[in-house]
Amino acid sequence: MKFWKFPKKKYQQKELSVLTILFAAAFLALIVYLVVFLAFESESFINNPYNKRIDALSEKTIRGSIYANDGTVLAYSTNDEVTNEEHRIYPYANLYAHVVGFPVNGKMGVESVTNFELLHSHSNVGERLKHAFTGEKNIGDGIVTTLDPTVQDAAYQALGNYRGAIVVLEVSTGRILGMVSKPDFDPNYISETFSILAEDNESATLLNRATQGRYAPGSTFKLLTTLEYIHENPKDYEDYRYTCTGKFRSDGKEIHCFHNKAHGDEDLVDSFTNSCNTSFASLGLTLDTKELTQICNKALFNQKVPFDLPTEKSYFTLASDASDAEIMETVIGQGKTLATPLQMTLITAAVDRSGKAPRPYVIDRVVNDEGRFVKSLATEGTISVMSAEDASLLKAYMRDVVTDGTGRALNTDAYTAYGKTGTAEYNAAGDSHAWFIGFANQPGKEDIAIAVIMEGAGSGSSFAAPAAKTVFDSYYLK
Amino acid sequence: MTGVFIQTAKYLMIALIITYTVQSFLVFFRHHAENVKRILFKEQMVLIYLFLSLGFLSMTAYTDDRQILVLFGFTLGVITLIQLVYRLIYVHGSVLLCNHMCILFGTGMLVLTRLDQAQAARQLVIGAVSIGITAFFPYLMFKKQDTFRKWKLVYLIVSAGLLLLVLLAGKTSYGAKISVSIGGISIQPVELVKLLYIFFLAAVYYEKQTLRIAIFAGGCTVAFLLILAAARDLGAALIFFVIYVGMTYAVYRKWVLLPAAAGIVVVAMIGAGKLIGHVSNRIIAWKNPLSAIDDQGYQISQSLFGIGTGSWMGSGLFMGRPKSIPVVSKDFIFSAISEELGAIVAICVILISLSTLLLFFRMAKSMQDPFYRWVSLGMGICYGFQVFLTIGGCIKLIPSTGVTFPLVSYGGSSLLVTFTMFALLESFYITTKKKDSR
Lengths: 478, 438
Known about the structure:
The complex is a heterodimer. By secondary structure, chain A is an alpha+beta fold. Chain A has 17 helices and 19 strands. In chain A, the strands form six sheets. Chain A has a six-stranded mixed beta sheet with strand order 4-3-2-6-14-15, with no helix packed on it. A five-stranded antiparallel beta sheet of chain A has the order 8-7-19-18-17, with helices on both faces. The longest helix of chain B has 30 residues. Chain B has a domain of 127 residues. Chains A and B meet through helix 1, helix 2 and helix 6 of A and helix 1, helix 10, helix 13, helix 15 and helix 16 of B.
């Protein structure tokens, strides 16, 4: 029992020192953790709708303004000197409704995401110190968005009275230049109208269709079907031939071309530019569904699209034992597939950018009340959607759509446009949503990519393509 | 004008407590002459009075509530009483420890007054009574010092009895049985048992230090832990376990006990997380509070919202929302301090607690009598670990254990026992000094 004998030394200095060090380390860990939390994590943590304290900040701060990329004021607050009541004013009313959003009733859009920044002030330190003593309110920081007023206005006009959405994005950076969703609302009166709007599920006015609306992609999906066909037939896809009679039948399912038009003899490029449903249904039956699913997953289906506003996941599924009928529907963008306009914009941007889509963002930076830079909220980086070879192939096909196919509405000398139309049937009566996805370039200007969806308008080539042209014109011809 | 005062007061308070904190560490790092130290301690006293006065006066200015002035007066009274008792009766004790008691108790009173005036008033009464009782300790210690080390069975039987009483007759709150109601007053016997248990261990180890004794003490500890686990009071169980490990390590000098204990804690936490509902709730809340914000994560989310929104400088007293944190005046008082007085003040409070803990260990070291030394060490471990658990729970470093902040949180039993521990430490310290000088 010698091992356990109590040591004869009078003091146990060493053990006490060890315990002291252990406890001191634990206490320092508390301090370090608290400092790290406050310095790096607390801002995003506390910006939560459950944190009623943020709203209390508005007692000390006049909510900051929201700007377009050229400094145009999209939202600002006034403070009534007498009643000390604040009013939020949106000078462009409905124009930026969904993307800018509102700070009340559960909050939405940029107003919601940057709530904390808008209620925090980096104004002149002396001024703030003075206000601390006088009790006057500080002016909160402003948010500069990437939105371009010319593009936004053009997109808004182009959508007309149709329900739907338009997303316009700068290809090299991922900046959102325009984002429109209809039906819309006037955020100046949101407090009064919110309860009615929130209950109206039929028109879903409060839904930002650009990021959260999910639609059958229709023929715009043929980009991915084409890719898969080329992957499976790398040597002889150019030898593909098909004779279109306007109809194709298999497994008891009949696929029609738009208006039952017979396109006659076609190769793969013709099928793509004519958006020939029967040709694609026929070649679709030869495809490996597993491989196609992989292509789709890479193209941001079934994944969260990174963005600063809330997004919905796009949806794609095709089991390996799927029936012919289901395959035929799926490869032409009908069936169960659902895509958001934002995601389709990113696929298009990837085609223009050697397969890498930019990470999209709409909130660029925080500035103080005098416009001085406070911090950047821009996100950088790219998302790999397809290979560079795939992208350059599709680019050529999408150019043909504009020069010789369903996108001729965009054929102009002013800039070079690329695109793909889509006509997505959504009911048995054959009513359809009009789609257009594409991009354009002009030397000396940035490339921009677009997705247009017009609910129930009809064909993509007659409605969505002209709408895209209006937006491209506004950007390249101004 | 009120606004100017409140804002000036807020920044002044931060400056005052920083000065106080720096001073309380200077004493450790440099070997000052006695007269320099004496001046330092006097300055600290002035800082405490100023700090509390600014806090209470700005609350009065903000609310126009005269009651606050009454509580202010009595708080200063109790603090003066602490100073008098420790200066006059505990002659040659540690003045720094006495100052720390004053600032921690005072800050607690400040925040309690802000949160709940009725609780603040009760806290004052118990504080005054506790100090009154502890005034007799040096006398008792000196007369009866040989008796205390012989009562090991008394400590054991009383402790076990009290724990069983809680288990059988306790009221459940937040999933744990911790309090017993006697004549309308709710008391928490576990607080007292902590102290008795430290005395028990020290008395047992004082007699002899064989393997058998270590196992006997370990067996008793396991029995205690099982009773506490049955009452679902896992925070207390953890404290008892750490006291046992720390004291046994110091007595037997076997470093292997420390990693072994750490392993047992981790395994027990995982096991308890699987088996006991309210533990797994707390672990969920700890891992990702926002994912369960409506439910298990509500408390910790509100705590972090408060700390984060108050940020470094704090919102100012009455300008935050600490009351949105459930049981803020007990388990989450640290969050209230951080939210309204600011994280800088909160960090100073952590450092002052650390300084207090260092004093416990330092004074324990200086005691030649192993019984005194081990009791002091056990009390130090108990104090330090409780502070770590409560603050760690508030800032989400560790899952919340429902432990209160000694001297700061609201709670009569805890306050009485903590004051007793501080008084015992001081009495042991001066008794040792007296022996040495003879």
